[in-house]
């Protein structure tokens, strides 16, 4: 068994919105809240390692120390900040983007290219065609933002009662920050605390 120290680069991360019954005083308190007792967790990259002797593991104490260090640098977040954190990622019930290419701005750009033989981005910024394209794009983006905000608010309502009167922090982990951080994101280590008074919301930023 080894402790992995290397860096593995990737592009994913997730925010963990964690509601504590009170502000943790130290890492040992966090370890008790999340794990109850000493535990070892496998590195999420172990699936590529055939020799079990070379598998990397992380202790619950190291994980608790990391989490305590990360929240100790932060101030608790407000409900509005929680909603914004949710809105910034992927969550259950989030709106679907229009990938079909049939939005008004996309069709306008296609028609422009067919008519003039060049991209709308090559048009003069002062032209009525370019201004119309920007108007359509802005309108669509504003509508998308409105939908995501409303969906984030609805998602938050599911957890509102569970996190009321609690101290809430947001931390981010992911394989873009290295193998250990990637394990915290993908290893289902933080999502299910031992102490049910602690509530965790995971928001993906893939």
If you had to describe this structure to a student in words, what would you say it looks like?
This protein is of the alpha+beta class and 206 residues long. It has a domain of 139 residues. Strands 4-1-5 form a three-stranded antiparallel β-sheet, sandwiched between helices. Strands 2-3 form a two-stranded antiparallel sheet. Helix 1 packs across helix 2, helix 3 packs across helix 5 and helix 4 runs antiparallel to helix 5. The chain is elongated. The N terminus is likely disordered.
The main sheet orders its strands as 4-1-5
On the 0-100 scale, what is the average pLDDT?
A: 90
Straight-line N-to-C gap: 30 Å
Largest sheet: 3 strands, antiparallel
Question: Which strand-content bin applies to the residues?
Answer: 5-15%
Topology as a string of helices (H) and strands (E): EHEEHHHHEHE
Low-confidence stretches: 1-10
Rg, Å, rounded: 22 Å
Number of helices: 6
Structural class: alpha+beta
Keywords:
single chain; 206 residues; alpha+beta; three-stranded antiparallel β-sheet; two-stranded antiparallel ribbon; 5 strands; 43% helix; 13% strand
Quick summary:
The protein is α+β, with helices and mostly antiparallel strands.
Please outline the helices and strands.
Layout lengths: L13 E7 L6 H9 L4 E3 L14 E3 H13 L6 H9 L16 H13 L11 H36 L3 E7 L5 H8 L12 E6 L2
Antiparallel strand pairs: 1-4, 1-5, 2-3
